[in-house]
């Protein structure tokens, strides 16, 4: 248990759960930053927000005596905080997609942080659990509409988001294949796992043959991690939080990633009716799926495997399965998805 040194007279209780599946031995702790972030508020409790596989950030829920609760994210580097703050403010000012309200941020401090208000609504994760088929199709359509609205923000070039505000984003511009390759290398660097480490090199080599086709993809704002825990349902619409992976690139990547993260089991395919509703929701806003969706989707099917490859032990625990069985599935998928790239 970690404790924040309270101000005189402050009765501060801290609840913190340890992630036993951490890919690194040393995990971040956000609690020491709470009082620096909220010197003008009486803090009553600092609570855990659930398990995270990201060793470079930590988020806590902060309850106050006289203010609504807030969420405080700390990062090892200020670039993540600048990116997330910029993306949130830009989306809030240029779309009708619900996002958190930024309370305060310090990307330049010794421990960079971002504080946001709690979003109004229910977690999509909670809404999805126990929902019937019709309700799930409606929720999937809502996710599709939300991503389409995010993807309406178009840019002249792909690139990494390095700053900005509600009026615009600052990019480190680059060709989309280079931005994609950098994200793959970043995933590789997040873990010390070596079991399937050669997959990253094989994937990057295979993507060289797709460079021209990927370079021609549209450049739009991407959320980067549209998983169910990062979606909030309110008044029939789906909002998004956790924008630290926002970047500009091919909408097919975001669209396929959300399909995989939101609607498909780890070792299985998404329900076709759910996928159809999801695509219909997207097309209702965008007019259609992104041009070239079916042609470029094999790239992102292969890229999605970088998660199970990098966090193999986490996936085995999350999937509650036998390690040997999971390894067999992953090895088969690796060969099939790489073959789909080299045969195209």
From TrEMBL:
One GO MF term, please? Answer: transferase activity
- Residue ranges, annotated region (Disordered): 1-28
Kindly indicate whether the keyword Transmembrane helix belongs to this entry: no
Q: Which InterPro entries match?
A: AGP_Transferase (IPR051678), Aminoglycoside_PTrfase (IPR002575), Kinase-like_dom_sf (IPR011009)
Specify the Aminoglycoside phosphotransferase domain's residue ranges. 68-286
Keywords, ordered alphabetically: Transferase
Q: Which Gene3D superfamilies match?
A: 3.90.1200.10
Source domain of life is Archaea
The record's section on PANTHER family has: AMINOGLYCOSIDE PHOSPHOTRANSFERASE-RELATED-RELATED (PTHR21310)
Q: What is this protein called?
A: Phosphotransferase
| Species this chain originates from | Halosegnis rubeus
